[in-house]
Amino acid sequence: MARIDCLSMILDDDIAERDNFGWRVEPATPDPANPLIEPEMPWDQGAVFAHGTFLKDPIDGLWKGWHVCTPSEGRNFEAYRRLCYSESEDGVNWTRPELDLNSYAGHPRTNIIFDFDSGGSSQYASVIVHPDAEPDQRYEMFIIRAPSRRPQNLGSGWIPGLPREPGADSHPYATYRYHSPDGINWTAVEGPLLRIMALGDRLIMPYTTPMGGADQASYYVLEDGTYELMQKVGTEMHPGGYVPYDCFFPYGRRVLARRTSPDGSNWTPPEVIVEPDWKDPHDQQFMELMPHTVRGGYIGLLCCYNVREQTIDWQWAGSQDRRIWNRPSRRPTLPNAPLGDYGGGMLWPTHQLIEDGDRVYMYYSGLEGVHGDVYSIEPSLKTFYGAICRASWEKDRYWAAVSATGGPEAAVFTTHVLPVGGKRLVLNAATSTVREGELTAELVDASGQAIEGFDATDYQPWHGDSKSHTVRWAGGDACPVDNAAVRFSMQRSRLYGFAFE
User: Fold this and answer.
1) Residues of the chain with CATH 2.60.120
2) What is the value of pTM for the model shown?
């Protein structure tokens, strides 16, 4: 369905016709202070990893992170992943609070939130803040825990406070739900929820059974109170996609699915929402999708797994409903750094994009190395070594419609006919000040004929950079008919979005 409010992003569905049209993807800006949290303490010298949540807390204004850490002796194994907590006053300078929850070899106070005795290893902590909830429920966490995966069998294999299944020797590898009054002291309240389908130490495919999960899961709460899960699932490999050294078993592919729940307890079956298509390289797979609400819909940061190279980078996607996602371009918004630098192998994002002022941020673990051995002839997995970094974008400037050829030749595209009678057209756009950029718009009817007083010759020229420029023609600034389309012409200009108000 075509939208009349596309100010933050334009989707393919907004366009009826196009000529010489291309998409410009704005590159992310890495923070000049990167890396922000580097391996330093004995329990995180293996990697300060992602698989968690960074946010700016609406309750106290602090920047906070719940993320995975591994020691140097165990960084190659999920079983060694502890959940740690870091905080910052400015989002750049981070500290490891010395908490009295868990000790570690000569350190009586650490920033470890969950050690192994509280339920085994931890990964993918989705922390959701409810400022107006009861005091003991203001922080909610969904987290994957593996009570049976404990190095040297540390701990009991049980999640304290949760009932045990008859005859079981530990709680299962699954998602568990916690509440907290402060984001530090957590109480398990429910679980197991979605179980990780495993055969021994290997995940099985397709792990799309009704109550089955995967080793990745990101939980959200929508405006109407509905819970949402964006998760990686496995499906049969498409022809030509098999890579022998990929660790996925047994030779399937990673795609993304969505589930919803009215209460966070009872979930719909998974609906696949992002999978490779004919525009992708044959080895393309997907690890994660982080949605973010913008004016007119949702943007999503898509975590792309390049299987032949065993690297991970990011693409942008957009959606009207969080179900159908459109990728305007397959170019990465944050490419990998050179191998051996932080981010040279994999960019593992955290739970959500963070909007602060005129910037939108993503915290991530930038890994120096790749996922597996590209010279192996059988499945493999390399050690992970990385640090927490962040990147950002200007708010509402993620991708733009531009001329495909550049130079003096303009791009032209026409919207669908829209019910915009009496409304004014507002642009989020920029024209080049160096090479005389030009952007024009005219209103046309269903037959493509310009509406009198609102054609390209009636357009009042505008040059500049604005996220809310109101278009004016000789005939005025309000659409004089009930239904009309817009025909845009862009020469050395960028159109990020438009809306009728």
Assistant:
1) 5-25+400-500
2) 0.95
